[in-house]
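Quick one:
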Amino acid sequence: MSDDPILYAVEAGVATITLNRPDKLNALTPEMLSGFFAAVARAAADPDAKVIVVTGAGRGFSAGLDLGIIGSGAGHRLETHPAHTPIWGDDVGPALAPYYSGGWPVLITSRKPTIAAINGPAFGWGFILSLHCDIRFAAKSALFNATFARIGVPGEKGSAWLLTRHIGQARALDLLYTARRFDGVEAERLGLVNAVLEDDALMPHVIEYARNIATFSAPRALAAMKAQVWTALDEDYSTAFAAADKEQDIASASADFREAFASYREKRVPKFSGK
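Output:
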């Protein structure tokens, strides 16, 4: 395997981004995190990538921030990613702008579905990274930990905001207050992951799931739905309904809409252009 700390590959419409520092359980350095943000932005702009999968090399997803950088003066670079610019158009998801900017939100502001394949420990900032993905699948050996209270900091990088929306206030506060470790089985029970799988079944399941979306779901519809879901809890019903109507009018005039019906009539796999 390459020594590059971030691996990027695209196959059958799925961009797989792998955190590749297995000897350190993929603990994040400033350079590694910047490279990760760049890889997500690359996938977001890659016409061959319809879905983005994030995972870790070896036996871990990410052990979080590499503690070796604390006090080194390197931390200031963690917020900087000049290559990233927002890619939501005015037609899809403009309400995201007040909530997200910079490198971390690239997983959310990407117009493409993002899936975390959590193959092992996801601690601290690794846990946060998984929270920024749209969908999460975990191996049975996966472990999670919102470590923040035990190191004297609040929920970092939007983690409290995200965790509350994913699993509800009481469950989020339990994990944040106690900073306890919990496994993939409990993560599924809490609703934090969509499913928990045997370790050797995780990646085959995630890749098949992602390829199914990449093949049969229209890219523009995916982008619109992603924006609708991520903004849903911050809009009233009337605003959301009006936005959905506007999006429907735009979508019904799109090439993807016509292709969806043509492929159905002709009983073939659709060839979506994202237009």
